[in-house]
Amino acid sequence: MDCFLGIDLGAGSLKASLIRRDGRCMASASSPVPTMRPFPGASEQHPQDWWTALRDAVRRVLEQAGQPTVAAVALSAGAHSSVLSDASGRVIRPAIMWNDQRSRAQVDRLKQTAGARIAALSGNSVSPTWTLPHLAWLAENEPRTIAAAQRLAPAKDWLRGQLTGDWLTEPVDAAGLMLFDPVAKTWSEELAELAGISTAILPPVVRSLSIAGHVTARAAAETGLLAGTPVIVGVSDTASEALGAGMTEAGMGVVKLATAATLSCVATAPEPSQVLVSYPYLPEGEWFWITGTNSCASAHAWLREIMFSNGGGAPLDYDAMEAAAASVRAGSNGLYFHPYLNGERAPYWDADLRGSFTGMTFQHGPGHFVRAFYEGIAYSLADIMRQFSDAGVRLRRLRITGGGARSPMWRQILADVLEARIELPETADASFGCALVAGLGIGAYTSMADLQTSIRIVASHDPDPANAAVYREGFDTYRDIHAALRDINHRISARERN
Description:
Elements: E1 3-9, E2 13-20, E3 25-32, E4 44-45, H1 47-64, E5 72-77, E6 82-85, E7 95-96, H2 104-122, H3 131-141, H4 143-148, E8 151-154, H5 155-164, H6 171-176, E9 180-181, E10 186-187, H7 189-195, E11 211-214, H8 217-223, E12 230-232, H9 237-244, E13 252-257, E14 261-267, E15 277-280, E16 287-293, H10 297-307, H11 318-324, E17 336-338, E18 356-358, H12 366-390, E19 397-401, H13 408-418, E20 421-425, H14 430-441, H15 448-451, E21 457-461, H16 465-497
Parallel strand pairs: 1-5, 5-12, 13-19, 19-20
Antiparallel strand pairs: 1-2, 2-3, 4-7, 6-8, 9-10, 11-12, 13-14, 14-16, 15-16, 17-18, 20-21
Helix pairs in contact: 2-3, 3-7, 9-14, 11-12, 12-13, 12-16, 13-16
């Protein structure tokens, strides 16, 4: 029986999932990956730790599944994180991660001197997330690192190279470097010059569904995979996850309730704006747009810790919190939550915004705060959905992923606020999506549409008309509160910095 292995490198762990062609998961395992923060705003990881985690996770998955023969492997990882190696293949320094903020000064200068040109060539607006400013920071602060670098590889491509010995990338992760012209499908000499590097150190770009190579004898001995197993080039984690959720057609989007909350959809072309981020997608020639808010599950954990502890002991579990909100009506009796606990990304891109509960009275109890929290995240997503509407995209059906997707109440509130059908897939994480990419790459699935047979929807929620009417009015108030508190938030933030 065909089975496919998907491997995803996340921000704090690596996960491997083994699935059958029908999408049933045979086994999965995760291994932690440590992050280093050598100075404020920095976020780095050692690539060797990725390989250690991969070896551990893959061995455990194969053992759980009874040592099956794997038909193909594919990998994904967060975009914008890359590895620099010298002429011998030795990693020069730890990888700078996508959430690293060290390059703010370089970003400010790039925006002033070449912001419009970067957007025109790359399809996106420069920010500290992207690899181009990471490299510009290194060119200024670690010139010996840049001088010694002979090869650059996006994170998933470096990790795949440990399995096969290849040095390749594909359009999705190439675009994530902000050194690639995704329309011309070539590395940009102009963008590379802004980063302080030569395009000679950038890998060949091939199709995402190409076979990059085969598991070497050395890698087989370390992982338990069979030597000669085909390994597909793969895509980024976001593209893998969207694919795993079944985002294969126009009009369908994916909302993710994880540490942050994101909204993505199939697109027709790049959108060079600060609000919507554009990436190539599958099949080749397609695009997807994504944008998101800063705080979601992270804010949920914060609420649990500060408001739902039992007399200073362990906090209540999330099910108990949700049970407390079960009798609270839509609108939370006029209580509003703004999830700006770490500033905000889309649609405001304002690091000086602050979170708030507004409208509190003696009539509000614990359940009101839980429901207001769910509604606040939903309103925040409605705020960024306006950007999709402005781009001509109307989303009437959304697949939902992430840890927050386990909450039936949260899913229904999202359906009511966003006025869209919300569908919960049985499995939709990036390692599952990678496994589907592995099947696509060897032709086990004949088309993107064929993937839908492996994606099962286990719950769905349609908007409740009465609640949707409450939330349409509530959303106007939510935005009015944001506007009223914005300048106050900026003053508070300025005092904190001083």
